[in-house]
Here is the input.
Amino acid sequence: MADIIVSNVKKSFDGREILHSLSFTVHSGDFLSITGESGSGKSTLLSIMGGVMRPDSGSVTVGDVDIAALSEKELAKMRRTKLGFVYQFFNLIPTMNVRDNIFLPIRLDGKKVADYRARAEELTTLMRLEKVLESYPSTLSGGEQQRVAIARALLYDPEVIFLDEPTGNLDSENARNVMELLAELNRKYGVTVVQVTHSEQGTTYGNRVITIQDGSIVKCL
Here is the structure.
């Protein structure tokens, strides 16, 4: 496991600076929530931390790797194998059942499904998905779809899992269930969790909170 060091990160769009020289460290095993109003820059920050977007200046290092300095090929491999991503709208393939959605990263990398079957079984049990493995996304609840997305993101046993509004499309009961599972993952496996959330309740499941306002950090706990 490795720390994430964000150092003097800036990002602009259409001539307007969205992030103003942000610096902080996420320690290995942290469960960090990034909060702030819509348009504050928190999702942009998450994308930069996860290598989905490059900063205009500054750096993000995971361990001793400056991810902004990686080639597109190196970055894509790191996102597939070291960093897990979960989005608000699940991003499941509608023509694939739950089992195939979970195994999708393995097939995209041309690896053998058999080598990851034990890991997948462990995750489906943890995510309480054993009874829906042959089901398709359209037949699942929002909470079930989000749990499939989390299982898929964890299949490679990543060092960090990034989540953008993981409970934004869920009712309160499903939101609570998903957050409890994320907290269990963090405790049981030591996976570093970084989430962007509007939910004040969602921040209580982690150990740290950073608040962004107009592209600047106004609170770091």
User: Anything to note?
Assistant: The first helix runs from residue 42 to 49. The chain has one domain: 4-220. The radius of gyration is 17 Å. The mean pLDDT is 89.
